[in-house]
Amino acid sequence: MTRIYLDHAATTPMAEEVIKTFTDEMNNEFGNASSIHHTGRNARKKLDNARTILAASIGAYETEVTITSGGTEADNYAVFGTAYSRKNEGKHIVTTQVEHHAILHACEQLEREGFEVTYLPVSKEGIVDVNDLKNSLREDTILVSVMYGNNEVGSIQPIREIGEILKGHTAYFHTDAVQAYGSIPINVNDLQVDLLSVSSHKINGPKGIGFLYQRKGIHLKSLFYGGQQERKKRAGTENVPAIVAFAKAVELKQHQLEKSISHYKQLKSTFLSQLESDGVEFTVNGSKEQVLSHVLNISIPKTDVETFLVQLDLAGIDASSGSACTAGSIDPSHVLVAMYGENTPELRNSVRFSFGISNTEQQVIDAAKKISKIILGS
């Protein structure tokens, strides 16, 4: 049975060019980028070149990019780094109820340490009201963290509008762009963000690598102690092969961005049209307009998500009930709870399908037909 992978929001397969770059670097570049000899300098050159590519992808300077082990560390660094560096200025943080757990759990920990966190509600489309955000700001607000594109339903937050609101406030503005990066054009100066998180494995790059954009003049307390790597911001010998492979994935994604957006929209339309043609009853969760092109979350009446996902797996279809980081949990999606409230049907009958550049229209048609058979029992 040929499997159909429709869970690219969880992780993506590494592109062939990225795998080649990764293995070539592992075979040929073993130097420590902090060493001053020839081998070390070669590694440093590769690292610097990769950082230039990463920075250019979001309109930043190379000195504003700090390499991390992925999106979770980047999010944690933004939240804890801000809190600990600015705690004498204030202890109030603003975020939303639909953030990734890398943000929510970090904020919960800070609450245990005496910080105060405002969790903004969202509409039934999963989008925060900018007026709610504006009204939540206080003199002692030191950080506002709002994710760019939601990983479960794909809703895109009004980041540019929030950036405008915060122009006259001293709070740092962070956005978790892990799901949005590589799916929509991003320029940190247009958005007026101070901090932005990215992860490699969402864009067909290797796992275990990412970065945090940190605008010049924004001070964060370091979370790692050791050497002076990453301009003394993150101690630890850099994983040069993974960073170079990450940069290759970024180059590929930037080159095909418009093509991939169009491709994902077509796949989503084809998938939904096939379900409709087969007579499947469903509703789309999240915004129909302000949405990431590759993420589709649907509610299917009279289905149970856990049973349905098992049936999909047996039929050769990889999908998800939401964030892969909570896979296996019996708790309902916190994103859907924020959108619809507790004890609503959507919490038990919603499934996320997410598309990748390697998916074909025939694949999504075949997947939709299998899904229809499962739901309609034919």
From TrEMBL:
Cofactor: pyridoxal 5'-phosphate
One function term, GO molecular function aspect: metal ion binding
Top-level division of the source organism's lineage: Bacteria
Cross-referenced SUPFAM superfamilies: PLP-dependent transferases
PROSITE patterns the UniProt entry points to: AA_TRANSFER_CLASS_5
Aminotransferase class V domain ranges (all copies): 4-364
Keyword hit for Membrane: no
EC numbers, comma separated: 2.8.1.7
One family name in Pfam for this protein: Aminotran_5
Enzyme class: transferase
Reaction(s) catalysed (UniProt annotation): (sulfur carrier)-H + L-cysteine = (sulfur carrier)-SH + L-alanine
Keywords, in A-Z order: Iron, Iron-sulfur, Metal-binding, Pyridoxal phosphate, Transferase
Family, as annotated: Belongs to the class-V pyridoxal-phosphate-dependent aminotransferase family. NifS/IscS subfamily.
Name of protein: cysteine desulfurase
Taxonomic path: Bacteria, Bacillati, Bacillota, Bacilli, Bacillales
